[in-house]
Amino acid sequence: MLTGYAQYGLIGQARMVFESIPERNVVSWNAMISGFVKNGDLKNAREFFDRMPKRNVTSWNSMITGYCHCGMMREAHELFDHMEKRNYVSWMVMISGHVEMYEYLEAWDVFLMMIRHGVKPEQSIFVVTLSAVTGLNNLELVESLRTVAIKTGYEENVVVGTALLNAFTRNGCLDCAFEFFETMPERNEYTWSAIVAALYQCERLEEAKDIFLRIPVKNATSWAAMIAGFVQNGHSREALKLFSELHRSGMIPSHSEWDVVSWTAIISAYEQAEQGDIAFELFCKMLDRGVKPNQSAITSLLSACRCMGVTTLGEQIHALAHKVGLNACLFVSNALISMYFKCGSLDGFPIFQEMSDRDIVPWNAVLAGCGQNGLGMEGIEIFRQMQAAGTLPNAISFLGVLCACSHADLVDRGWEYFHSMHQDYGIMPLVHHYTCMVSLFGRAGRLSSAEKLIENLPVQPDIVIWEALLGACRIHHNIKLGQKIAERLLQMGARRSSTYVLLCNIYACQGMWKEVLELRETMKDKGISKEPGISWIQIKNKLHYFLMGDQSHSEITEIHSKLKELYICIRKAGYVPDTSFALHDVEEEQKQDELLYHSEKLALAYAILRTPNGAPIHIMKNLQVCADCHSFMKFASKTTHCKIIVRDVNRFHHFKDSSCSCGKISNSF
After folding, report:
1. What pLDDT, on the 0 to 100 scale, is given for residue 586?
2. Measured between alpha carbons, how far is 531 from 497 in angstroms, rounded to an integer?
3. How many domains would you assign to the chain?
4. Per-residue pLDDT tens for 174-214?
5. Which residues cross the membrane (predicted)?
6. Separation in Å, CA 604 to CA 554, 612, 649, 654
7. Cα separation of 644 and 544, whole Å?
8. Quick one: 425 and 438 in the same domain?
9. CB atoms within 10 A of CB 325
């Protein structure tokens, strides 16, 4: 009865029974000490220990265990040193106690003392001591332990062997690990997983694949680990290719055998391979089979929503996260904030405000969201709140607030933040921060300031920063500077189509058609083609994609009819097609016809056809919105009485009542 009370933490009842025993033996005393230790009451445990008329090794071990669990290693050592007789548990408790306190050298010293006392280490001692030498990052000590294992016959023990394998890999000697692995007489699933994971981490993917194929019994966990290894190393497409090969060969278990880790691995692979639609299909299958999603599955799906710009699906995942109790998880909250802002929704704000515990990540997510959505003053206020909360900004924080200033044309404020990075926080600006400042100066027409900033860059300027200035030259029709920058970009070996398109736009705007044709010939000779503009929208959980002049959609006739109807309506409202950036020397009417069938306009027409009157319309585009489409959307938002949200490669444009959140007239784009 006494032992039962003590084991279940009923220490009060245990003490009453103990006090009622007329003649107490060592078992009774040990039961009480063990009970106090389990309750964390070391004071009473030590009092009983000191009162014991006679102690055995269990008495000493119980007390030492209590001290070790509480991190009181000095007290534990005092008792350990006074023990007349120690058993295997005594040594194990002391070594593991030091390991738990990250005192790896002390743990190694205890192990050596044990060897000097002639005590033969057993399996668990080897495993915990290998943890210590791994923490010390000392390959020589790993080799020493292997020698001891050989002498004691434990090298062939599969548990000890796997621990040795892990120690080799974590000490940076993959070749030693691989050689040892090949000599192991017995391997379990953890052994196979350890060597495969090590090969992944060193990006030796083909070797990892070969080892995986040698695993005698492959289960859902093993192939999921393999897929995850490829994905974590940025090889999601290779992961999917391998998954398909395994599936065709019958090596992948049926869906009924998959656990949440298996489902999450393949969902993450499709998400990172930018195949979010398939990731969603798999996620739905997982739910149909009654598998409860974990936070990794939820964040993967939210990332897919963010990339595709589909708010509705994101809202559904948000509701599911709330249902399964994951909405308050820090990683999920951060993913939700990022998803909403990158889908053009401001619903990320209330999630951020409700977070009780914020690290730098949610602050940065909100700052980035403010920048992307043109909320300059809001971004500045969030940055101020972050400072007031005692959270030190990092390089990403400053990138967010600089983007907010750039999209809101707050030049002087942005310049202050840029200087504050190094002066107040000791953060050296990176090329991304300089690019933000160049964009900020460029949008404000201060091209000479932008050029001077690039020329004085402490690091080698990249193609992106020069393109930012080239884009500003296009906006402000500065042909001379634009040509100078374009020549520099071509000397740098720029092969991005955007460089050539920007320069073409500058020439076309000035009617320099000879130069446009010459530049096109250069592109053709170099095998550089203009990236096609693609726009997409979500209608009833299905994505619809459009290309310029697209004829492939099943409802294209109705779409064209609606677009022409809308065109007539906004022309009456004052819209004038902006053909200044048309890249063909053709008649004005033909230029207008070509502009009418830009991908975002086709997407808008279809959205008007298939969404309720007055409902917000979300359009995503892979390139920058042209000046004419920008003007078109402004007038369309007025005549259709609905909000139009367009995400292009740079930012979100929130069109409402003939105005845009970017605050710019159309030809300043």
Report:
1. 42
2. 7
3. 4
4. 888 889 999 999 988 888 888 888 887 787 878 888 888 88
5. none
6. 16, 13, 18, 14
7. 17
8. no
9. 9
